[in-house]
């Protein structure tokens, strides 16, 4: 499975027409992805059949949210659920950079029956195995991770370990500078089957169909 992270509508349309399995829709690439605009989502849902997972993140920076920000996350899930989101992507940490059991559980329950992915906030936690077990307990279907490192290639040892131990219970979605030139190496080493990329080549602004096709070929 190949998921393409799309930060604006041009990339979203390119990816939705491509061989990718689904997209993750968000905005603000410089902030690592925030909740997208509902009108853009509605436009894409009306035009394309491919699954669209929606990022639920009210601000950039860390992953600890105050009450107002958490309320915004609740409202966003309710809104995008109403208009047909195929999945949600979010992650809440506490003040100690550990998984917030109560708040994440609330949002997963709210989203049901729509599947939820815990994003790369996971890589900020101190013990990836413990965090993985917590997320399985909460009911997340997928974890997006680079294995606790800046890139998936750097974190390949941790990714391999997580996949060996937990892939039967939760999908380990490998992300973090995954590109056509390294996806085969990452796949062979980790035995991973789920990959995440923006598919934006160096010095370009938008997702690239040829890059997606290359990654798809190497990922299967």
Automatic annotation (TrEMBL):
HAMAP family: CutC (MF_00795). The keyword Electron transport does not apply. The lineage of its organism: Bacteria, Pseudomonadati, Bacteroidota, Flavobacteriia, Flavobacteriales. Keywords: Cytoplasm. GO terms for molecular function: copper ion binding. This is PF03932 family protein CutC. It is found in: Cytoplasm. SUPFAM superfamilies: CutC-like. Belongs to the CutC family. InterPro entries: CutC-like, CutC-like_dom_sf. Pfam families: CutC. The gene is cutC. GO terms for cellular component: cytoplasm.
């Amino acid at each position: 499975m190949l998921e393409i992270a799309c930060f604006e509508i041009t990339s979203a349309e390119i990816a939705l027409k491509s061989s990718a399995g689904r997209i993750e829709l968000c905005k603000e690439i410089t902030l690592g992805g925030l909740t997208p605009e509902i009108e853009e989502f509605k436009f894409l849902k009306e035009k394309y059949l491919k699954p669209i997972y929606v990022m639920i993140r009210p601000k950039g920076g860390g992953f600890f949210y105050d009450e107002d920000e958490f309320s915004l996350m609740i409202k966003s899930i309710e809104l995008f659920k109403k208009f047909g989101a195929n999945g949600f992507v979010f992650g809440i940490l506490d003040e100690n950079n550990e998984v917030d059991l109560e708040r994440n559980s609330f949002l997963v329950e709210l989203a049901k029956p729509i599947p939820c992915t815990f994003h790369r906030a996971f890589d900020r936690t101190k013990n990836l195995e413990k965090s993985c077990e917590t997320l399985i307990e909460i009911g997340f279907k997928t974890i997006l991770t680079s294995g606790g490192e800046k890139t998936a290639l750097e974190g390949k040892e941790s990714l391999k370990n997580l996949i060996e131990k937990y892939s039967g219970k939760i999908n380990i979605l490998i992300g973090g500078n995954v590109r056509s030139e390294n996806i085969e190496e990452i796949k062979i080493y980790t035995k991973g089957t789920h990959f995440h990329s923006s598919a934006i080549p160096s010095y370009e602004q938008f997702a690239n169909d040829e890059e997606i096709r290359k990654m798809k070929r190497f990922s299967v």
